[in-house]
Amino acid sequence: MFIHRQNAFLYFILVVSVGYLISAMSLGAPIVDNGLTPSFFPIVVGAVAILFSTVLITQSLRNPPEERASDEPRNYTHLWVVAAIFVYIVAFRQIGYFISSSLFVFALIMIFSPLEKFLLKAGISVLVVAICYVMFQKLFGVRLPTLWG
Description:
With 149 residues, this protein is mostly helical. It has 2 domains: 8-62; 77-139, no CATH class. It has helices at residues 5-25, 40-62, 77-95, 97-111, 118-140, and strands at residues 31-32, 35-36.
């Protein structure tokens, strides 16, 4: 079926991605004087989101999703991810980049993996956040909010 529930969601994501890219392009040129500007990263994210959603739509149209058996338990992972994103957005400015991002990455890892090896997953979360901090601070020149000011 062309308009399946999953396909409708993928079309919605594609439309949101196109809107995001258009708004990101209104921020200005991504490269000025051989240097990256703050609009570079949002434009790349928007373009990649459009690419990935187009690939997913193509795959979905080639291989229609199978109907789920009614006796299978429902999976509410998507709701947990939305809740984590909401909490992250609210907490980002108040408690800073390091704490909020570390908790966010840890929460996403825990949502998509078994509930074990907490210390390893916490370490991976901190490492990912540290790498992203260096990338934003040194490569893009974007100052991220911190708890200490």
